[in-house]
Amino acid sequence: MRSKLSLLLQHHPFLHLLFANSMYPAVGFNFGPVIMCYEHTDFQNDPCNLCHITALGNFNPDSGGYLILFDIKLVVRFPPGSSIFISSAIMQHGNVPICNGESRMSFTQFCPRGLLRWVMYGFHTLRDFERQDLEGSSQLKANLAGQVDECIHLFSTVESLPEDVLMNV
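RESULT FIELD:
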């Protein structure tokens, strides 16, 4: 993501990242006062890059606001100030309502897949890219299945986790 975003910023110098200390090109502020999401995926986000979700507000995390990761059948206690990284484009997620009189907000950082496609297509729409570079667009389409496999292999398994942790220390 960083290399593609660097190319994007070089090609469009009037663009800039929202925060100097964040690599994410997009954010969502949900000011509530009562944010609750039903089961969903963020299909327009890039599946290879994790989405950063932060819970905010004043609520009792023992009675509500739990984060639900439906695909892996996991309910996570998610108190105000907590953050999590998930692939929101492929992992179904949502949260549990909070109690009356409480507030819950969220701050989310993510990377829209369309921005990365814009760079991959040489700063053109897909239609224009196909018109201008039929061979290149055919090659790109042929590589899509491999890109999905590459994304999947970015995630740790139970077996690979100890080694993955050592590689990132």
